[in-house]
Amino acid sequence: MEIGSKLTNSWLDSIVDSFNGVDSDRRRQFNRIGTATRAVIESVVASKAPTEQLGLIADAIEKVAEDIGRFPSGRVYEGFAEAANTGGNGGFMDFSPISGAANPIAPPVELSLSSDPDGSPIVVGVVTFGSAYEGPPGSVHGGHIAAAFDEVLGLAQSMSGSPGMTARLSVNYRKPTPLGEPLTFVARIVKKEGKKVFTEGKCYFGDILTAEADALFISVDFSKLAQLAGERERTNDGQKPQL
Ligand SMILES: CCCCCCCCCCCC(=O)SCCNC(=O)CCNC(=O)[C@H](O)C(C)(C)COP(=O)(O)OP(=O)(O)OC[C@H]1O[C@@H](n2cnc3c(N)ncnc32)[C@H](O)[C@@H]1OP(=O)(O)O
């Protein structure tokens, strides 16, 4: 099995270094906003507040939305959100919808790089999904589990040295995945054949395997990502790029 024929220490090092980012004030404020907005989302979906209080809270949130809406938004990052940072050399993927601390819709999944006992590189994602992610009672919605897999498998495939986009993602749900409990996702490259990078991953609650996934990524020329970013720049905020 050939894993990452182009894998170099500098490639891995650059990813590891960029996780940490710079402790800039701008990054701290973005992360504070992300954390506070997540807390609001969690409380909103699970709140037993009296209706009158809900009205006051809605007034306050509408005011916050109005205040921040006065500033231009939608293009604060270069390139694509997965690899975006909060500016001033913030951390890698700060705005990822899955792992970005500064993105309020991210749970977020905390990513790290590690290795198997046999020394093969793996990606580990640790996350606790709150009430906003409920599917079956007390369990995480399957779509969010799939999204977390896409993220950890996506980072794992990038360790091949020729990262690409998800072409196919398949998830087997083995047991209900609990809400409000720490989960561990583990992802690895299985093999690489030309542009194809095959990956697999598992999700554990403690020792319990709750879900497993495999995915195919197709290495893309970075000019394709540049093209997508360029299309985004040519469209208005929130509109689809023309593919
Ligand atoms: C630093 C960064 C870190 C970044 C870390 C970030 C982690 C997060 C990652 C998140 C990733 C995403 O969510 S990505 C978003 C979701 N995915 C997408 O939007 C992708 C949309 N699809 C596409 O753009 C395209 O279809 C591609 C890029 C996947 C493939 O297009 P292509 O490059 O033109 O591929 P092509 O030459 O036609 O095919 C090459 C080979 O792959 C096969 N192939 C192609 N597509 C498929 C497919 N869907 N299922 C099976 N097989 C396929 C072909 O049959 C062919 O096999 P053969 O004939 O050679 O045998």
UniProtKB/TrEMBL annotation:
GO biological process terms held by the UniProt record: fatty acid metabolic process
Limits of the Thioesterase domain: 138-201
Gene Ontology MF terms in the entry: hydrolase activity
Enzyme class per UniProt: hydrolase
Protein's cellular compartments: Cell projection, Ruffle membrane; Cytoplasm; Membrane
GO cellular component, as recorded: cytoplasm; membrane
UniProt main location, coarse: membrane
EC annotation from Swiss-Prot or TrEMBL: 3.1.2.2
Record key words, sorted: Apoptosis, Cell membrane, Cell projection, Cytoplasm, Fatty acid metabolism, Hydrolase, Lipid metabolism, Membrane, Transit peptide
Cross-referenced InterPro entries: HotDog_dom_sf, THEM4/THEM5_acyl-CoA_thioest, Thioestr_dom
Protein name: Acyl-coenzyme A thioesterase THEM4
